[in-house]
């Protein structure tokens, strides 16, 4: 297996962290012996090549842009010692613990992203946003079902705190959506990442009642045909899955040979 293929197998955000570290490592190695411009280009190229293994285009940009952006910021504030920038990164890690990055970084649900969902799923009474961020998904759900009982869970403590303040009348917990039971909800909403979807489907089938819904913005459950899908120009797809009643065990035919 080629080294870049190996990188592609790493869990996000490891490829981004590696790309940023690689960019800076090349810079520190090259800057003392080369003129600044070629050293900078070599460092940016190292980050971009490693970042390319990051996966989808958005992740490639995040990983590849790390060195150029941070060197630009540091250059603009050259008199500050580098440890100041490490300190500045601490709030980011507090808001986004790495565990949450693995499922999805912060991308809010656009206000109108779920338009039309009510016509398909009817009137769910208890709705759960798994990984609710700042509560934009909850707000979009509230617009569709003003009377529903809404709940959300969020791994990042600051985001959970802010979401609870933004979404009055909605119960928001800080915790891990994978540990928290989903049972009792008529609809579970997710806006996570492609790799989380198989796990989310397995949990939904295990814990939700037949007739309940799993709804995912943008990312589909691999290998599982949706019950419906909302799509259109300028909008992200909404994948809608109805949890079916478990098939009853096939009746055993009793023939003459079965009598003992
Ligand atoms: C793409 S954002 C979506 C936020 C919100 N659902 C919305 O649509 O506006 C995904 C959120 O899931 C959170 N998250 C990721 N993994 C989680 C986990 N295991 N438990 C709880 N929240 C998680 C992230 O911190 C992030 O805020």
Structure, described:
This protein has helices spanning 3-8, 14-30, 36-52, 57-76, 82-95, 98-103, 117-121, 136-144, 157-166, 197-207, and strands at 126-130, 149-154, 171-174, 187-190, 213-217, 228-230, 238-242. The relative contact order is 0.09. Mean pLDDT is 82; it is low at 254-260. By secondary structure, the protein is of the alpha/beta class. It has two domains: 3-79, no CATH class; 117-242, Rossmann fold. It binds S-adenosylmethionine. S-adenosylmethionine binds at residues 100, 103-104, 106-109, 129, 131-133, 136-137, 153-156, 159, 176-178, 191-192. The site of S-adenosylmethionine has 23 residues, from helix 6, helix 8 and strand 2.
Briefly summarize what is shown.
The protein folds into 2 domains: 3-79, no CATH class; 117-242, Rossmann fold, CATH 3.40.50.150. It contains 10 helices and 7 strands. The chain has helices at residues 3-8, 14-30, 36-52, 57-76, 82-95, 98-103, 117-121, 136-144, 157-166, 197-207; strands at 126-130, 149-154, 171-174, 187-190, 213-217, 228-230, 238-242.
Provide the fold topology.
Elements: H1 3-8, H2 14-30, H3 36-52, H4 57-76, H5 82-95, H6 98-103, H7 117-121, E1 126-130, H8 136-144, E2 149-154, H9 157-166, E3 171-174, E4 187-190, H10 197-207, E5 213-217, E6 228-230, E7 238-242
Parallel strand pairs: 1-2, 1-4, 2-3, 4-5
Antiparallel strand pairs: 5-7, 6-7
The chain binds S-adenosylmethionine (SAM).
């Amino acid at each position: 297996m080629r080294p870049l293929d190996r990188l592609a197998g790493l869990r996000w955000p490891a490829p981004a962290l590696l790309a940023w570290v690689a960019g800076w490592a090349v810079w520190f190695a090259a800057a003392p012996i080369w003129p600044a411009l070629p050293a900078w280009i070599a460092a940016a190229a190292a980050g971009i090549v490693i970042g390319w293994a990051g996966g989808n285009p958005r992740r490639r940009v995040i990983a590849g842009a790390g060195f150029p952006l941070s060197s630009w910021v540091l250059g603009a504030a050259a008199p500050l010692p580098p440890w100041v920038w490490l300190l500045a990164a601490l709030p980011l890690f507090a808001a986004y613990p790495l565990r949450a990055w693995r499922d999805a970084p912060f991308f809010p649900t656009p206000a109108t992203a779920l338009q039309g969902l009510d016509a398909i799923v009817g009137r769910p009474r208890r709705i759960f946003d798994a990984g609710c961020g700042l509560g934009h998904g909850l707000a979009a759900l509230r617009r569709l079902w003003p009377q529903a009982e809404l709940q959300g869970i969020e791994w990042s403590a600051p985001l959970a705190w802010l979401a609870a303040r933004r979404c009055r009348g909605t119960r928001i917990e800080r915790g891990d959506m994978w540990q928290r039971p989903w049972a009792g909800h008529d609809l579970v909403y997710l806006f996570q990442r492609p790799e989380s979807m198989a796990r989310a489907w397995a949990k939904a089938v295990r814990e939700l009642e037949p007739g309940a819904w799993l709804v995912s913005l943008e990312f589909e459950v691999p290998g599982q045909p949706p019950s419906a899908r909302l799509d259109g120009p300028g909008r992200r797809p909404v994948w809608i899955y109805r949890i079916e009643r478990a098939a009853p065990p096939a009746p055993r035919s009793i023939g003459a040979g079965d009598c003992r």
